[in-house]
Each structure stands twice: as structure tokens, then as C-alpha cells.
């Protein structure tokens, strides 16, 4: 089921957490920040929306490094109910797409809840002070892979944030599969 996150809550402070990466090591979310900002992306392995844009996510993460923007991805989906989103499949997905960033497992879903993540993909763009300046889409793609020349909404917003500390006031929300929450115990 498609879900659409709320608009950007400008100035909301990034929350740190230590999560296990696909390398088996524990990584701090905020330690992934570049000198000019950070993108925290909630993704997963099985979502058709993520699969449609994963090449562009990887491209944009690589390109944003040149602007001092760090990037980290978090998978919070319930792997018991959705085995395609298991830790082992996260490792495979990372290798297949040559991620230039850490892919972290939010097994207890506390980070996704703290961020208010709604869908995959869901992008949070922070400035160098850790203040939210972007909560929008990657580009105009949906469940189908769009043209590579689509306007790069996330990339352009993060370039602006790198240069000014401020995100664009007009933002288009991301759309994707809803986060697969675990049933309460």
C-alpha cells in the first residue's frame, strides 16, 4: 500500500542512534554526516518504489559527497513478516547495488518511529547543524523506473542546503510502500 509522508518540519533536530550495519559493525547515524549535512534514507530491499530508484539513490549519494553531504540508509521493516527485508538480504542488496554508504538495520523499529518515517523510500535532509531542511522525494519516479534525466529533487535540495543551510520551501512528498511495522507483543 502506498504511503505519503508529511511535509518538512523545518528545524527538527536529527536523532542519533547506533545501529548494526551490513558489515556487522555498529554505526552512529549522525557520524555519517558530512561537513555540510546528512541524508537519512529509510529504504528496504523488496519495495517496488525503492527498486525503481535504487540506482539513482546510489548515484545521488555518491554525487552529494562532493558537496559535503553524508548519506546513510536505514531498513526498519519487519523481516519476520517480510523475509526479503532480512539482514542477510540487506547484505545482498548492498552488494548488488554497490552502496557507497552504510545500510543500517533498525530491528526494533525505534529509529523509524523516532523519525516518524512513513514509507520506503522516505528521505530526511539535514543541514550542518543537524536541522531538518528537506523531507521530500528523490525525483518524480514512482513504482516504475523513470528517465535518468528527471529533475533530481533530493540532490538539488541538498546542494542548496550545503550552500545556504536552508532547504527549499516548496517540496514534493515522497511516495512509497508503507513501513512494515511489527505487531505489538
Key words describing this protein structure:
single chain, 185 residues, alpha+beta, four-stranded mixed sheet, three-stranded antiparallel sheet, 4 helices, 25% helix, globular
Short description:
With 185 residues, the chain is of the alpha+beta class. It is 25% helix and 22% strand.
Strand content: 15-25%
Number of helices: 4
Which consecutive residue ranges, at least 5 long each, have pLDDT under 50? Answer: none
Instruction: Describe the strand arrangement of the main beta sheet, using strand numbers.
Output: 3-2-6-5
Mean pLDDT: 94
| Rg measurement, Å | 15 Å
SSE string, helices as H and strands as E: EEEEHEHEHEEEHE
Number of strands: 10
Quaternary class: single chain
Distance between the termini: 23 Å
Task: Find the structural class using helix and strand composition.
Answer: alpha+beta
User: What's the story with the biggest beta sheet?
Assistant: 4 strands, mixed
Shape, per Cα inertia axes: globular
* DSSP helix fraction: 25-40%
Describe this structure in words.
The protein has a four-stranded mixed β-sheet. A three-stranded antiparallel β-sheet has the order 1-10-7, with helices on one face. Strands 4-8-9 form a three-stranded antiparallel β-sheet, with helices on one face. β8 (122-127) and β9 (132-134) form a beta hairpin. The protein is 25% helix and 22% strand. The model has no long low-confidence stretch (mean pLDDT 94). α1 packs parallel to α4. The protein has four helices and ten strands. It has 185 residues and is α+β, with helices and mostly antiparallel strands. The protein has helices at 48-65, 87-97, 110-115, 153-164, and strands at residues 2-3, 18-21, 26-28, 37-42, 69-75, 102-105, 119-120, 122-127, 132-134, 176-178.
